[in-house]
Amino acid sequence: MGDGDMVDPDDLNNEELAGSASRSASESAAAADAADATGQNDVPERAGEFDEIDTLSALDFEVPEVVAADLVDESGAEVDFSDIDVAAVLAERDEYKSIAQRVQAEFENFRKQANIRAQSDADRATGRLAEAFLPVLDAAEAAFLRHPDEVGPLLNQMLAELKKQGLESLDLDGQPFDPEVAEAVAHDPIDGGVPIVAEVLRSGYQWKGKTLRAAMVKTKD
Asked: How far apart are CA 213 and CA 173, in angstroms?
């Protein structure tokens, strides 16, 4: 085509379309080569993988019977307990209840006995202390016989404080003789009858209702 020739618009459009088609074909071929290089064209293999996943999803897994029995029916349907031995369950409950009551009773008895033993041990300990204090009372009584005005208030105060703790002096003068609380070391015979305490030679004491030391007395009968 010379310089002076006219260009046909249709020919120009055809050439552009042909070039564009050629470029598209080249680009498609390049894209296909790239896909082959990266492994994106293995569609059949990946399709097989999806088929395996669908197959696994379609499997029907059975729930173990133990778990299935524990499932609660959300619809609110009544659960069948006909296979439970109610009599055996109640008997087992009563047995456990009886064991619990027996253990509780044994514990209560143990606690009471422990309290009694503890109190008894405390009484014996304080009783020994009071018994060790008796010679002091004997000395105070002997001093009272010589100096009643001076020693009397002190002796009375000592006896009052000891009485608060459980110590009591036995008042046996003129009372019938009782060998549980008194020891006869002298005797004045009379015309017979019940022995009577004629004189207290050494005072006797009780500690919380029990004889701590028997009195030494002279009797007459």
From this structure: 16
Q: 39 phi and psi, to 5 degrees? A: 80, 20
We find that the CATH architecture of domain 86-220 is Roll (2.30)
Residue 70 carries which side chain, given as an amino acid letter?
A: D
Nearest-angstrom CA–CA distance, 66 and 91? 25
CA-based end-to-end distance of the chain = 179
* pTM for the model: 0.49
User: What is the rounded distance in angstroms from the CA atom of residue 217 to the CA atom of residue 199?
Assistant: 6
Which range has the worst mean pLDDT, 24-28, 61-65, 212-216?
61-65
Residue 175 has pLDDT above 60, yes or no: yes
Q: How far is CA 166 from the centre of its chain?
A: 39
Give 193's contacts (C-beta < 8 A, 6+ positions apart).
221
Overall average pLDDT of the 37-41 stretch: 47
Q: Which two tokens stand for residue 37?
A: 């290089």
Encoded tokens for 11: 């020919």
3-class SS string, the chain: CCCCCCCCHHHHHHHHHHHHHHHHHHHHHHHHHHHHHHCCCCHHHHHHHHHHHHHHHCCCCCCCHHHHHHCCCCCCCCCCCCCCCHHHHHHHHHHHHHHHHHHHHHHHHHHHHHHHHHHHHHHHHHHHHHHHHHHHHHHHHHHHHHCHHHHHHHHHHHHHHHHHHCEEECCCCCCECCCCCEEEEEEECCCCCCCEEEEEEECCEEECCEEEECEEEEEEC
Quick check: 208 and 123 in contact, CB under 8 A? yes
